[in-house]
């Protein structure tokens, strides 16, 4: 089954064609990151306007690149929640019109379900159950993936998401946007042991917290500056990156042990982080678990993961009517 996937939940306008949820035929992403970087973060209204301008050309390119034609598309899958509402509405309305015009089903896709589905593109034989850490700009969830459309939330952030924390630290350290890659790059030249950062407490057994970590970085920087000492930005970035990887990997390891998971997965934009990946992989090696993570191109927002998730939603009978609306917040379950 050939599905067109549309993604506009944040600052990537993306479209892709995927066969039977597993084979990527095309995957076009128009990133707005460079434009938003001059504002230090995503400007929601600007993102919506750019989606309006880009969505038609991005979709045309995805169809052309796939080697198929519009007549071959059998369903249209679209991210409808969660995300920036103005941005989501562009994709939702475009997908509605497209599905209506080609007389094919419209499939609503939850953004976190799509991030998880990126695994099915990377590992064509992978099947649930598995445990998955979804770490992105908006979420840090530890999820028990019981089936393709059956999820249990084991833990989550109680304040900032992991990617959000990277973005905020990058701003504090003047490293630019998006923060994740900028902090990781700076950290390469730093000493992670030069500064000591705390591990913030979170209420639930598998919950995480990052806002206290952000405050600790701000306080440390201010204290050093007040004392007239030079702040080693690279080492502070390395300490933050290491602590974040520590917080996430320990909770994931504990949750995986509790549910006796055989497969441990990492997805979302933050899954591109090498320190985090290595930390989780070494825990998995130590515990005899399989570790799965998509390649970098499939970690960030893209249309292929939406098309893949859409395939499994379709199989479960989840078809949207043409009054489908975008939702800024919605749980994965
Ligand atoms: O999944 P994603 O592309 O969009 C959302 O759904 O939010 O994730 C974007 C987030 C941003 O916060 C970005 O800073 C972070 O992923 N990110 C990283 C890295 N690359 C992107 N965080 C840490 N290390 C990276 N290498
Ligand atoms: Zn995302």
Note down, in words, how this protein is organized.
With 333 residues, the chain is of the alpha/beta class. It is 45% helix and 19% strand. The protein is built from 11 helices and 10 strands. The chain has helices at residues 33-37, 44-66, 85-102, 111-122, 162-172, 179-187, 211-226, 233-258, 274-287, 296-299, 303-315, and strands at 2-7, 12-19, 23-31, 75-81, 106-110, 130-135, 140-147, 150-156, 263-267, 290-292. The strands form 2 sheets. Strands 3-2-1-4-5 form a 5-stranded mixed sheet, sandwiched between helices. The protein has a 5-stranded mixed sheet with strand order 8-7-6-9-10, sandwiched between helices. Strand 4 (75-81), helix 3 and strand 5 (106-110) form a beta-alpha-beta unit. Helix 5 packs across helix 6, helix 5 packs antiparallel against helix 8 and helix 6 crosses helix 8 (233-258). The chain is globular. The two termini are 25 Å apart. The model has no long low-confidence stretch (mean pLDDT 97). Bound molecules: 5'-O-[(R)-(carboxyoxy)(hydroxy)phosphoryl]adenosine and zinc ion. The site of 5'-O-[(R)-(carboxyoxy)(hydroxy)phosphoryl]adenosine has 20 residues, from helix 5 and helix 6.
Give a summary of the structure in a few sentences.
With 333 residues, the protein is of the alpha/beta class. The protein has helices spanning 33-37, 44-66, 85-102, 111-122, 162-172, 179-187, 211-226, 233-258, 274-287, 296-299, 303-315; strands at 2-7, 12-19, 23-31, 75-81, 106-110, 130-135, 140-147, 150-156, 263-267, 290-292.
């Amino acid at each position: 089954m050939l599905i067109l996937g549309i993604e506009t939940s944040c600052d990537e306008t993306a479209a892709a064609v995927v066969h039977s949820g597993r084979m990527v035929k095309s995957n076009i992403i128009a990133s707005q990151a460079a434009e938003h970087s001059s504002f230090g973060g995503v400007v929601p209204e600007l993102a919506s306007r750019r989606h309006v301008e880009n969505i038609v050309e991005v979709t045309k390119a995805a169809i052309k690149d796939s080697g198929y034609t519009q007549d071959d598309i059998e369903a249209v899958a679209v991210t409808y929640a969660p995300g920036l509402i103005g941005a989501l509405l562009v994709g939702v309305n475009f997908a509605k019109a497209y599905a209506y015009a080609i007389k094919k089903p419209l499939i609503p896709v939850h953004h976190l379900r799509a991030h998880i589905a990126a695994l099915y593109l990377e590992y064509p034989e992978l099947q649930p159950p598995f445990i998955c850490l979804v770490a992105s700009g908006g979420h840090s969830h530890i999820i028990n993936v019981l089936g393709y459309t059956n999820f249990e939330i084991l833990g989550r952030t109680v304040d900032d998401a992991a990617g959000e924390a990277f973005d905020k630290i990058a701003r504090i350290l003047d490293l630019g946007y998006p923060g994740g890659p900028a902090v990781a790059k700076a950290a390469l030249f730093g000493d992670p042991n030069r500064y000591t950062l705390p591990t913030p407490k979170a209420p639930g057994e598998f919950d995480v917290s990052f806002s206290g970590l952000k405050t600790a970085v701000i306080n440390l920087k201010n204290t050093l500056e007040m004392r007239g000492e030079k702040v080693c930005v690279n080492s502070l970035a390395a300490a933050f990156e290491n602590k974040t990887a520590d917080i996430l990997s320990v909770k994931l390891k504990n949750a995986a042990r509790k549910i006796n998971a055989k497969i441990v997965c990492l997805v979302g934009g933050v899954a591109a982080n090498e320190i985090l990946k290595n930390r989780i992989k070494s825990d998995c090696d130590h515990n005899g678990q399989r570790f799965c993570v998509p390649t970098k191109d499939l970690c960030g927002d893209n249309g292929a993961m939406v098309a893949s998730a859409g395939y499994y939603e379709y199989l479960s009978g989840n078809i949207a009517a043409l009054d489908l609306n975008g939702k800024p917040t919605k749980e994965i379950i």
